[in-house]
UniProtKB/TrEMBL annotation:
Residues 10-452 form the FAD-dependent oxidoreductase 2 FAD-binding domain. One of its GO terms (molecular function) is oxidoreductase activity. Its cofactor is FAD. This is Succinate dehydrogenase/fumarate reductase flavo protein subunit. It holds the Pfam family FAD_binding_2. It comes from Aspergillus heteromorphus CBS 117.55. The keyword Flavoprotein applies. SUPFAM superfamilies: FAD/NAD(P)-binding domain, Succinate dehydrogenase/fumarate reductase flavoprotein, catalytic domain. PROSITE patterns: PROKAR_LIPOPROTEIN. The lineage of its organism: Eukaryota, Fungi, Dikarya, Ascomycota, Pezizomycotina. Keywords: FAD, Flavoprotein, Oxidoreductase.
Length: 476
């Protein structure tokens, strides 16, 4: 490498979310330890200081117990949900390495909150725990960026969009064409290029093409997602990559339909009911635990011809138990409240007779088993068109509460196929020389997303790939 040329680097990383920051930082740290002088370009479409992408908006719930051990049940969940399609080698590597990732972050100044969940039955084998960084994903990215800024051999190219991969005559990826904010193109060169630039949530054309009709009904759960336009996937497809994950799949969540606040998720469906604008229930809210159903109910509200408009409804018994708490507190709006179901319906602007009928029928169909939110309690309805399998408590203790909800897009599933070293693979299984990918733009989930693992995988495979790339560079 000619180190004198300003457009030459040892590594180009595209995207400055968890995956990109972890790749760049681990590459720099490992190289420094090996006393190898390197130059890194971190190419980012967003502006300096802007909350671009997903990582800067997520609360970053992590599927870890209080000792930062990864949920041992996740691999089985991945196998079941994906009907055996998930890449189990990748899953096993995440399970093995997640704790080291969390420890690495702690060592770098990220503070983790250990959350002991007392009200909601988690499907994790973490003794009712999960973990989140203090200050959420925004704080975690800032910590990583602070460490990156200590390296004067790391150049962050803000407002610079990667457009195309460059290759040498034999097909080895050796750089990226970028588009600067003045609209002009420039070529940057490096023997290795890491794509960490997110999914295609921000690209209506790709959503419609891959996921299908009515994707335009979905709003993004956070504004930073508009930057994730699938360019990484397009660039890799152009040089012949294979794909993985369900291309018609996405992680959606129910969010408060009244607010423009990002990430205003309403998680409470398991312990109440959700109706569409015709006041009909459309999903078994208690089929399984909250985190095993929060995506499915949102997908059904959007995809199941309900106009993506619904209402989560509950009564004082449930509301008093769960507030304050993360289940109903992500929104900045108070729920609608009324002393009768008819009044509630009038406030919501739905048919009072129909809402009353739905709730009366639901109440009459609940069995007499005791309610226990910490178990799949078998407190179910029978005889309804759609029954509720657990936690079916009659809504009979006023006041009654309702949140208007709509499904919002959190992330897409379809992406680039990689091996466990984060090398991008061609359809014949051979790595594409010089091309790497980490984070959400690598395909993993099929049919659904056993959650609280997306952040962990972005961080973990970023960490491992950064280290591996530095070792490879040092050996040359
Ligand atoms: C509101 C919200 C809540 C979530 N909650 C959780 C949770 O609790 N737990 C969990 O595990 N997961 C959660 N997720 C998912 C998780 O946050 C993401 O999967 C993860 O942060 C993705 O990280 P990433 O580094 O792959 O991508 P991103 O963080 O999206 O970073 C990609 C970066 O690439 C940039 N970029 C895009 N295209 C280009 C280009 N062509 N050139 C240059 N730069 C480009 C973008 O601007 C962006 O900065 C949530 C997501 C959201 C939005």
């Amino acid at each position: 490498m000619s180190v004198n040329r300003s457009d030459r680097y040892d590594l180009i990383v595209v995207g400055s979310g968890f995956a990109g920051c972890m790749t760049a930082l681990n590459f720099l740290e490992t190289s420094q330890n090996a006393r190898k002088h390197v130059r890194v370009a971190l190419v980012e479409a967003g502006k300096n200081g802007e909350r671009c992408g997903a990582s800067r908006w997520t609360g970053a719930f992590l599927r870890l117990d209080r000792d930062l051990n990864f949920d041992p049940g996740w691999i089985r969940e991945m196998t079941d949900v994906s009907d055996g399609q998930a890449d189990l080698e990748y899953c096993k590597k995440l399970a093995k390495e997640a704790r080291a990732t969390a420890e690495y972050l702690q060592d770098h100044g990220v503070r983790f909150i250990r959350h002991a969940e007392e009200n909601v039955l988690l499907e994790f084998e973490t003794d009712q725990h999960f973990v989140m960084p203090e200050g959420g994903g925004w704080a975690m990215v800032q910590v990583l960026m602070e460490h990156l800024h200590r390296f004067d051999n790391c150049e962050v190219h803000w407002q610079t969009e990667a457009r195309k991969l460059l290759r040498d005559p034999r097909g080895r990826v050796n750089g990226v064409t970028v588009r600067r904010s003045n609209g002009l193109l420039e070529d940057l060169y490096a023997p290795d290029v890491m794509l960490s630039c997110g999914g295609f949530e921000g690209n209506q054309e790709m959503l419609a093409r891959h996921v299908g009709p009515t994707t335009d009904q979905l709003s993004l759960i956070a504004p930073g997602l508009r930057y994730n336009r699938g360019q990484g996937l397009k660039m890799a497809l152009d040089v012949g990559c294979d794909t993985a994950g369900s291309f018609d799949g996405m992680h959606l969540e129910l969010a408060d339909a009244r607010t423009s606040k990002p990430n205003a998720a309403i998680y409470g469906h398991s312990y109440g009911i959700v109706v569409d604008e015709q006041c009909e229930r459309f999903y078994d809210e208690g089929k399984r635990q909250l985190f095993a159903t929060f995506e499915g109910i949102a997908v059904e509200l959007w995809r199941g011809h309900h106009n993506n408009k619904g209402f989560f409804i509950t009564d004082a018994t449930i509301m008093e138990r769960f507030r304050p708490g993360w289940v109903y507190e992500s929104t900045d709006r108070e729920p609608f409240q009324a002393d009768t179901i008819r009044e509630l319906a009038m406030t919501l602007g739905v048919d009072p007779v129909q809402l009353h009928r739905t709730i009366s029928e639901f109440n009459a169909a609940c069995n007499d088993k005791p309610f226990d939110p910490m178990q799949l309690d078998g407190k179910a309805t029978s005889g309804l068109r759609i029954n509720k399998s657990n936690w079916a408590t009659p809504l009979d203790n006023p006041p009654y509460y309702a949140f208007p909800v709509t499904a919002q897009l959190v992330f897409t599933f379809g992406g680039i196929k990689v091996n466990t070293d984060s090398q991008v693979l061609a359809p014949d299984g051979a790595p594409i020389p010089g091309l790497w990918a980490t984070g959400e733009l690598t395909g993993l989930y099929y049919n659904g997303n056993p959650p609280l693992t997306s952040v962990l995988r972005c961080l973990t495979f970023g960490r491992l790939a950064g280290t591996l790339l530095a070792q490879k560079t040092a050996s040359h």
